[in-house]
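TA notes, week 10

Several of you asked for a full example with nothing omitted. So below is the full record: structure tokens for the whole chain, then the designed sequence directly under it. When grading your own attempts, check the secondary structure regions first.
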């Protein structure tokens, strides 16, 4: 493959996905930490922030190294890219609206414990159109895992448990940390894909230089 077949937008698109997974994965970890009710608070906070930060650094490295790639394909596919961004905005807005509605219903009916797993279902569902929109097959797995996690927790886990006289919100902890691991894992896979694209582009550029010399 030549460098021209791997545009800057492709690598930076993966970097954006990594940032997305790092940020929201850390937010989900925060929900899990909240469910722990203060147990091992500092350790969990530090660990969660560290994982998110490492993923974020990986995304920054991708963005920085992609500056050497061609920008030509972006201009050719500008209309398509704008259409994708518009649909992403619609999907993301719909997700936010559904989460707000779910929060209102759960609070109004005094079932706040349901909110976290229901939110995980909504977040998981929104990955399916994103997978098709951006042609990222791993998003299908991410969405499926999030929906399965929320469903299994609601059907089999107790809402709260007591460990050593300490009450833990089991649904929040399991869904929060489980969702964080799923999103962070997705971020790692996307990040590795970005670095593979960079490597392919660089090798293609080196081959083209050799061909020119010959």
């Amino acid at each position: 493959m030549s460098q021209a077949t791997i545009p800057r937008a492709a690598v930076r698109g993966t970097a954006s996905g990594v940032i997305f997974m790092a940020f929201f994965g850390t937010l989900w970890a925060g929900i899990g930490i909240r469910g722990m009710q203060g147990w091992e608070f500092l350790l969990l906070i530090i660990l969660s922030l560290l994982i998110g930060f490492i993923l974020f650094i990986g995304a920054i490295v991708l963005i920085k190294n992609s500056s050497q790639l061609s920008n030509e394909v972006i201009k050719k596919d500008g209309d398509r890219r704008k259409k994708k961004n518009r649909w992403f905005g619609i999907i993301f807005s719909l997700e936010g609206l559904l989460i707000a509605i779910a929060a209102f219903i759960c609070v109004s009916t005094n079932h706040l414990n349901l909110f976290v797993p229901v939110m995980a279902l909504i977040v998981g569902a929104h990955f399916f159109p994103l997978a098709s929109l951006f042609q990222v097959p791993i998003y299908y797995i991410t969405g499926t895992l999030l929906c399965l996690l929320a469903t299994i927790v609601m059907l089999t886990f107790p809402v709260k448990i007591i460990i050593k006289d300490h009450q833990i919100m089991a649904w929040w902890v399991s869904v929060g940390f489980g969702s964080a691991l799923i999103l962070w894992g997705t971020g790692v896979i996307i990040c590795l894909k970005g670095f593979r694209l960079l490597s392919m582009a660089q090798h293609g550029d080196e081959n083209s230089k050799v061909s020119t010399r010959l």
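The radius of gyration is 20 Å. Use that as a sanity check on your answer.
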